[in-house]
Each structure stands twice: as C-alpha cells, then as structure tokens.
Amino acid sequence: MSTGPDKPLTVTELSRGLRDLLEAGFPDVWVAGELSMPKTYDSGHTYFTLKDAEAQLPAVLFRGAAGGVRFKLEHGLEVLARGRVSHYAGSGRTQLIVSELRPKAMGALQLAFEQLKKKLEAEGLFDPARKRPLPPMPERIGLVTSRQGAALRDMLTILRRRFTGLHIRLIPVAVQGEGAAAQIARAIEDFNEQFPDTEVLLVGRGGGSLEDLWAFNEEPVARAIAASVIPVVSCVGHETDFTIADFVADLRAPTPSAAAELVVPEKAALVSTLEDARRRLRLALAGLVREREERLRRLAASPRLRDPRRLYEEAAQRLDGLSERLPNGLRGLAQRLEERLGRADLFALTRAVQTRLSHAGKDLALQAGRLNALSPLAVLSRGYAIALRADGRAVRRAAEVAPGDRIRVKVHDGEFPAEVKA
Question: What is the pTM of this model?
Fold first, then answer.
C-alpha cells in the first residue's frame, strides 16, 4: 500500500491495517521465550513480555485463556506460547495474543504440582509433627470417593471382610474432571461438620493418568485435608502415584484396598491373637500357682514354723551372747583410748600450756595498767582533789555552790569537810 500527501492515512487507519496484516500473516504461531514480569489485573487478564537474548515481545493472556493454564506464571520461566500476532492501536504496540501456554522444561501439570508442593511444604502442611495417629480399632469410617468407582467396591469388600459391625458412611464425589476438587474438599468439610463422630476418613480413587488424578493435586483438597479434625488417609491411584493429598494426609495408603487394610484390623487375626494371649496367660498362671504351692510346702516343712518356740530360743541366745561380749568391748575401748593418750608428747603439751599462760599474764598486766591510768584515783595521787556536794555528786562548776554550803573534799588518801566562802 502506498499513499500520497494529497490522500494520507490516518493513524487509526494505519494501525488497523497493521493489525489486519499481522493477524493475517501470523494467525497461529508458537513462540519460545522467557516470561518477564507477568502481572495479573483484577480483570483476570495477565500481561507479560516474552524475550530472548536479542529481542522481546509484549504478550497478553486474557482471562478466558488463563483458565486453561494449570501452573503459576513466574518471572524467568521458560515457556512455549501459542497465539496470534496483533497490533494494538491504543498503545501502538505489536503483541502476541496468547491462547495456550506451556512450560518449556516440563509438563504444565508437573510444573503446577511442583509449585503447589513447594508452597504447601513451606507452610508446614507436610510436617510429620502435625500428623495424627489413626484409631487402633475404628467403628465409624467415612469414605470420600466416587459411588461408581471400583475403589469403593474394593474398600467396602475389604472392610466388611476384615471386621463385622462397622458403621461406614459414604459421601460420593466426582474424582476427576471439572469441579471434582471442589466436591472432594466439600465432602471432607461435611464429614467434620455433620458427622464429627467419624473416626477416620478414607479419601481417594483408583488409578489413572496424571490428568485423571489431578483433583487430588489441587489446593482446595490439600487445604481441606489439612483442616480436617478427623484423621485422613489418602488412597489415590496406584502404589507409584503420589499426589499433593498424600503429602498432607495423616497417612498415605498406596491403593484404596491398602487403605481399608491399614485402618481396620482383621477380626480373625485379632481373635487368634487373643486366643494365643489367653493360652499364654493360662500357662503363666498355672506356673505361678505351682511355684507358690512348692514354696508353701517348703515353708510348712520348716522346723521353725512347725515349732515357733525355736524362734524365741534363738533370739534369747543371741541376746545372751551380746550381753557377754559387751563388757569386753568396753574394756577394749578404754584400753585403746589409754594407749592413744600415752602416745601423746606430755612434755611438749606442758610447755605449750606454760607459754600460753605466760602470754596471757603479760596481756593481763598491760590491760590493768591501761585501766589504772584512766582511774580517778590515779589523778588524785598526783595532788588533785574532788569537791563533793551533800548529795555526793561532784562539783563541776562554781555556780553549783553558794557561800555557806557545806561540801566534802576528796583527796588521794581520804576526804575532809569544808565550807564555801564568799
């Protein structure tokens, strides 16, 4: 197409032409590239860029097509994108309208499995510490599986064969296809809400492809199992099939039949075990009775029990023996003490005592001298006197006496009366 300045194209006309040209030239292509910065808006549409080492291409995954993508779009993921190339006039960019998206390194379902497994494991849903033991002999058992499946028939046959009188309740669900995961999760919740007396739940189905078993790899089922108060046994597919439900459940059984065998003991085996225990108990009791009878016969034949006076005689003899040995023991003890005392160094002991007495005498004289120096008598001996009032108290100030008062004067060797003059 060519135009001249006398008849130019509008921008819209050119954009529409580019769109028509691209959509006609690339109506259905597969593009290999790396996902860059995927972003999903509230509308459900996801925008990202496909790129390689030398180029990049804007792309959009509309909500309608996104429902078919099982895995989570992550930055840096190598993918194969199928779609048509178009031109968006609003932003003036060429982009790939994606209709199908596959991971390049592995299958979409396998990638989704790995992504969810990694997420739930990080949240602790696989932690062995949160798994509960199963009841040893449950009477009320819940089943979450398809009513039409062979798995249900297998489980019922085994449960009824192994033990009679079980109360088995079934909530039938779709085990594959659209909406199966929601039904399974709802059934587990219903058992917990409506039939809380259920002692254990068997959740599963028979074998199939990865796509057939996919409902048990979906997050709602994993969350419902994790939230269940009733212990859950997962039994999905065959022995080699592992699902997310297996990792979350309290116990994983390789098949539905194996699950029935794991949760219910075989009645015949229990009866045999009880019979064997009863036989061994009877033998043990008989042996115990024989041993006690023999012991009783030996005691009955004992001379002491036949003549109890011998017990008294033996005790009396022991007492006499002790009484006889007691004086000798005391004498021996006194002798040993005397020998220890005799071995002591009496001279050194005497000298130590004399030295201690000498030091004590000197110390006593020193303290007496100090005490005497503080005595008022010592002061009087140096020529001083003490004036005493009639009541015997010492006169300390002149104002305490008046002319005419009779006082006594105490000196070193006695005292004499005196009168105060003006």
Answer: 0.55
